[in-house]
Structure formats: C-alpha cells, structure tokens
Sequence to fold (218 residues):
Amino acid sequence: MKTVVDNDLILKSVSYGLADVFWPDGEPHSIGILGAAKYVVGHEIARAGLKRGADVARSELSDFLGRCAELEPNDEEIELAAQIELCGQEHGLALDNGESQLAALVVMRDLPLLETGDKRAIAGLDGARPHLEALDHLRGRIRCLEQIARQVIEEDETFGSVSAGVCAEAAVDKSLSICFGCYADSPADRATVIEALDQYVREVRRSAPEMLLDDGQG
Fold:
C-alpha cells in the first residue's frame, strides 16, 4: 500500500473531478481508506452544492473507491486512535476521530504516507507528537492537498485540466482557489500557481515542521 487518504481529501478530489489525476491508476488497492468513507463522503457530497452536480461526484467517488482498500482498525489501533483524539481534546488540537484512526493505522502498520486535505489536522498531529511517543512514526509521512496539486501540475499538459477543475468548484477549498487565481478576472498561469502553492506548503510546514513530507516543495 502506497498511501492512505482521508475523507476530506477524497471529497475535494471527487468534487473537482480530479481523483484520477491525483491518484493515477496503479496497483490495485494501493490506496487505503477508512471503511466509512463511502458513507461519510457520500453524505458530504449531497450537502456541498456542487455546480457539476452531486450525481457526477458520486459516480466519480464510486469509481475511486473501487480502486481502494478499506482499512478497519484492530483493537490496538482503536486504542491508539482514542489516545490521539484524547490528546487533541486535552491540548486544544484539531484531531477528530477519522484523522486519529488514519494516523493510528499509519503508525501501527508502518504505512508510508498519509494524505489529507485538513491542514488543521496536520498541525494537530504535530502538536500531539510531543505528548504521544507513537506519533514519532508519522514524522515526514504526511502530505497535504497543496503538495499533491503542486506535484500533478509538474506536467504542463495536466495544468489546464487541474486549473479548470479547481476553479469550476471554487468553494470547495479556499486556499487552492486562491492559488489557482479562481477569484480573479482570469485564472493564474502555471508559474504563478506553482509559486502560490509553494508558499502555502511553506506555511503548512511552519505549522507542522516535523510531520510534513519533505518532497522538495516549498
């Protein structure tokens, strides 16, 4: 398994119509997700008011989930997830049940990467690390949405489709919409977007200096 992906990032990718761009077809079940993703993300799609329509996003969600492996935490992983969530509550960190479960799965199964669209959760895991020794195993194993977008537009031919997808649903993620110039009279060019994404990655890295993947960006 190459990566595990949180519900927030799944929702954003299918809302944009970019799941296949973010995670091109590769080995079957190389992507791990929580078993509840189909229900949680499906519910959020219905509430999102997408311009492209909920049915289109649901269809893409179904296709994406068909390429993924559902991960169900065992008792030991559930216990660690509970400790992570409790640590978040005790220290005022943004760590919900889903992010805590995924973090526990990555730690206990020694999985290579956790990808998330929730920058507050990344900072929360970094803040919890000094209080939970197990979270040391997450250092350098988290990748944010801006890093993913930055990577996929390395190929010039993908930039147009990514820009169009993001700006067509500008309400889905404010920071990504700003990076792609979706609120301007015309979308930003590739060089400007790369510069903006690098800046956002640097900001995330400042909030979580130990956790974010070092992929040469930002």
Summary: The two ends are 26 Å apart (CA to CA). Residues 190-207 form the longest helix (18 residues). The chain is about 55% helix and 10% strand.
